[in-house]
Amino acid sequence: MSTSAVTALPAVGSPELQRSLQRADRRRRLTAVGLTLPLLVFLLLTLLVPIGALLGRAIENPEVARALPRTGAALAGWDHKSEPSAAAFAAVAQDLGALAEGSDAGALARRLNSEVPGGRSLIMGTYRAVHGDWKDQPLTDAAAVRERMVTLDERWKELKYWQAIGKNAERWTPDYLLTSVDLRRGVGDGLFSGIERVDPDQRVFTGILLRTFEISLEVTLLALLLAYPLAYWLSTLSARQANVLMILVLVPFWTSILVRVAAWIVLLQREGLVNKALLSLSVIGQPLELLFNRTGVIISMTHILLPFMILPLYSVMKSVPPTYQRAAVSLGSTPWAAFWRVYVPQTYAGIGAGALLVFILAIGYYVTPALLGGPNDQMISYYIAQYTNVDVNWGMACALGAVLLVATLILYAVYRKMAKAELSLG
């Protein structure tokens, strides 16, 4: 009888078997990394890199440092309390003369004007003089340059403009982040010299942030109140019926937000369907003001974000066995008590996930408050768009975006901690 060569298998526990298992495990890990690598690269390029750029731009202050390098060096040892030396005046003139593009001077002027009103006209006036009447005059005689600048504009004698230049002469600054929470840096050397609150009449961003959280919380609670009974009802239906009704829940996902907001404008206006229906039912005596106020914003945002609350609740409720409630009732509990003490605690995960998702989406809303709200109903995203598109102040826009990012991370950390506590108790 002929025999064929058979490769002997490694013995159990032998070094050969261990090496073979290690190679197989290494191949499995490399395969997993290779499959997930495109997704990781995509997230890196579309999420992490933009977030890093946003955080960097929130503390970057390039306008003054790039446009006035000689001035920054001349003000390095200045006490910020007395008039700078004549050399600082000459340095400003030389720096402005070195700016070949008017756009660079405009960026510098806008940055200083955000610190001190009138800074734009002061810088641009001096820039035009340096490139015009003073073009053929030497700028090395510091005393003569100072006299020309003071003659051109008396404001060069005022300390507040020099303090603004000196404070922003460094490339990196905490001013944008401090301003976004109604704080400011005092006059002096160093990045953090005497941080203090701004004057009461200038404290706007704290109120805007609190308003953003207030509207988002109201929308989240209202969405939870509407979504919980609907998700519970869907979870009690058969799979076929639930799938058909779930399509109706998902229909808003297929409609543009602008279209839905426009529809709410038609519905909520004084002559709209809502007021006409309430008047015809004699519920009200005169049309209600439902547009361009907080009411319209909350109604529309709740309608738009409601599916994001229904889906997590439905997925959790579908996994809760209905026999638990029946068992509680058979043991003597009332149906109402069985629902609240047996069923609801098992849906806490869905409540937490839905509330977190809706709240995080709500704090970043822009279109709905801008179209349906009044001046006192705008959220922080409105001001981010204002600084980006109108004021062209990217530093301030990125600082406000960083505040939203930090708020989102804190909310997520709180949710994770609560979820872990619930698991440990369970």
**How many helices does DSSP assign?**
20
Unreliable spans: 1-5
Helicity range of the residues?
Answer: 55-70%
CATH architecture of the domain at 205-392: Orthogonal Bundle
CATH class of the domain at 205-392: Mainly Alpha
Q: Radius of gyration in whole Å, from Cα?
A: 32 Å
Tell me the major beta sheet.
2 strands, antiparallel
- Beta content: under 5%
Q: List the secondary-structure elements in sequence, H or E.
A: HHHHHHHHHEEHHHHHHHHHHH
Oligomeric state: single chain
The strand count comes to 2
* Shape verdict: extended
* Overall pLDDT metric: 87
Note the gap between the termini.
65 Å
- Summing up helix and strand content along with how strands pair, one would put the structural category as mainly alpha
CATH superfamily of the domain at 205-392: MetI-like
Strand order of the largest sheet: 1-2
Find the CATH topology of the domain at 205-392.
MetI-like fold
Membrane topology: Multi-pass membrane protein
Pfam families: BPD_transp_1 (PF00528)
Keywords: Cell membrane, Membrane, Transmembrane, Transmembrane helix, Transport
Main location: membrane
List the main descriptive attributes of the protein structure presented here.
single chain, 426 residues, mainly alpha, MetI-like fold, two-stranded antiparallel sheet, 20 helices, 2 strands, 1% strand, disordered N terminus
What does this structure look like?
- With 426 residues, the protein is mostly helical.
- Among the domains are: 62-171, no CATH class; 205-392, MetI-like (MetI-like fold).
- Helices cover 68% and strands 1% of the residues.
- It contains 20 helices and two strands.
- It has helices at 15-59, 62-67, 69-74, 86-98, 102-115, 119-130, 142-152, 159-167, 175-180, 205-236, 239-250, 257-268, 273-280, 294-317, 323-330, 335-343, 348-363, 367-372, 380-389, 394-425; strands at residues 183-185, 195-197.
- A two-stranded antiparallel sheet has the order 1-2.
- α10 runs antiparallel to α17 (348-363).
- It is extended, with a radius of gyration of 32 Å.
- Residues 1-5 have low confidence and may be disordered.
